Amino acid sequence: MHGGDIYRNSIVSDFSVNINPLGVPDEVQWVLTEAALHANKYPDIVHEALVGDTAALFDVSEQTIVYGNGASEIIMAICHAINPKRALLVAPCFSGYETCLKGVNPKCKLLYYHLSEENDFELHHDFVERIIVEKPELVFLTNPNNPNGKLIDKDLLDDIIETCDKTGAVLVVDECFLPLTGKDMQRSVIQDIQSHKSVIALRAFTKSFAIPGVRIGYAICSKEAMADQLKSHLPEWNLSIFAQMAGVECLKHHEYLEKSVKVVEEERYFLTHEMKKLGVKVYGSDANFLLFKCNNFELKQQLLEYRILIRDCSDYEGLAKGFYRIAVKQHNENEGLISALSDVLF
């Protein structure tokens, strides 16, 4: 279901999880070490410093911000709060939405909009028509989409938001990978989120700051009432003092993200170019990961012999055997992957 299973494999290079290739910033690592000195205290139950800094960064009301133990906890809270009878998902996309929807309401009708392989798995305008016709109560979008990494066209996303406003659907836009595209400020729905009825922007420090083990994510809601609903479905003290202190520090380091974007762009080009030379079909991506297809159905297992882990995407709705996803990592690891692929495929 997910990447990152390093606990049952002996791995040197984990390409199965899409975290920032630069790793944890030194300042954040230091704060995590310092947080151990405060482990004898309860964390702030309302995350005051974290919420205040987030509100200032995005120029939104503090009352519209909801923090969680990773974005996954917030997704579950959204599903509990809305408890939809009908939900619309893109396929392929992150499997966590489906898991939460089924867990909250096994009778929820899951509606899939299947992206076309021939169109590089891009979202098209007929998605708007699906919302109008199907009348879902909850719509999930990932921008950029996972596993293919394509950004949603801005005009199309604006139309989707307006359509959801008119139909009454709650729209969740998962932007967890957006800061690593270099187009965060141009493409985020947060810019004018409070002018809409029921939009939720979902984010996490997991990918951008390479701290999946810390577990910290947040939502920015268009209305305070929606944020209050989500909070009512979250446990008290759901963030550790480690997560709170790390989050506050992460919000200070925009220069780290700018540097990361440059590395991602250069290495994404390198991987795409080299994999195509090996005869692999690589799909266009704006993110820090690539979806590719080859006719070797045992590729994941074979790369484990080189202690390299990749993501087999055959369990995604809308994909079949032969589809794989890799993270964009630093150059030496990317070279190692290309070398291993060359050995395995030839």
Automatic annotation (TrEMBL):
Keywords: Aminotransferase, Pyridoxal phosphate, Transferase
Residue ranges of domain Aminotransferase class I/classII large in the record: 14-340
Protein name, as recorded: Aminotransferase class I/II-fold pyridoxal phosphate-dependent enzyme
Lineage, broadest ranks: Bacteria, Bacillati, Bacillota, Clostridia, Lachnospirales
Cofactor: pyridoxal 5'-phosphate
Organism listed in the record: Pseudobutyrivibrio xylanivorans
Region forming the signal peptide: none
InterPro entries named among the record's database cross-references: Aminotransferase_I/II_large, PyrdxlP-dep_Trfase, PyrdxlP-dep_Trfase_major, PyrdxlP-dep_Trfase_small
KW Transferase (keyword) present: yes
